[in-house]
Amino acid sequence: MADQSESGGRETDAVPQGAAFRIVDLVLDEHTVVRRSPDVEHERKVAIFDLLEENVFAPSGSDGGPYILHLAIEDNRLVFDIRLEDAEPHGKVLLSLTPFRRIVKDYFMICESYYEAIKTAAPAQIEAIDMGRRGLHNEGSELLKERLAGKIDMDFDTARRLFTLICVLHIKG
Questions:
Q1: Beta-strand relationship, 23-28 and 67-74
Q2: Coil, strand, or helix at residue 27?
Q3: Does the model's pTM come out above 0.90?
């Protein structure tokens, strides 16, 4: 697999399955993070655990992994630094963060409302806010899949977990 930017890549018809096309370890570049709320830290841990338990991750043109993914934000770009299980570099995919700005901002706002609501709001209010939160999360996940099309194929659940981690990377101390 070679380095790819947003203009490169090809469309694929099916997402490869199996042990060779999965992430077995994930490293978040969190050098800008000072402190997170307990709620956000919990979301990060759950997303990483769930991602490593079950995922489909197939870089375009790759013969397979398994992969170690280093996820970072550099110069307003999301960096997918993909390595093989023995840490050998396998390629990088860079995505502009600009298309994600609005959805990440909205997602943060609704998450704050949700965390406040669960302390005092009625169950119906909490459920309504949670539905909105899940809807935005789904929208961010679809956007991620769309932006990675032809570069990295993944299933929807993998995209959801990666979107959560992208949001975590946006939090600066």
A1: parallel
A2: strand
A3: no
pLDDT at 170: 75
**What gap in Å lies between CA 139 and CA 164, rounded to an integer?**
12
The half-sphere exposure of 91 on its side-chain side, counting CA atoms within 13 A, is 20
Mean pLDDT of all residues belonging to the chain: 84
3-state secondary structure of 73: strand
φ/ψ bin of 91: left (φ > 0), alpha (ψ from -120 to 50), beta (otherwise)? left
Could you write out the DSSP letters of every residue in 74-102?
A: ETTEEEEEEEETTS-EEEEEEEESGGGHH
- Under 8 Å between Cβ of 88 and 70: no
Q: Is the distance from CB of 154 to CB of 145 less than 8 angstroms?
A: yes
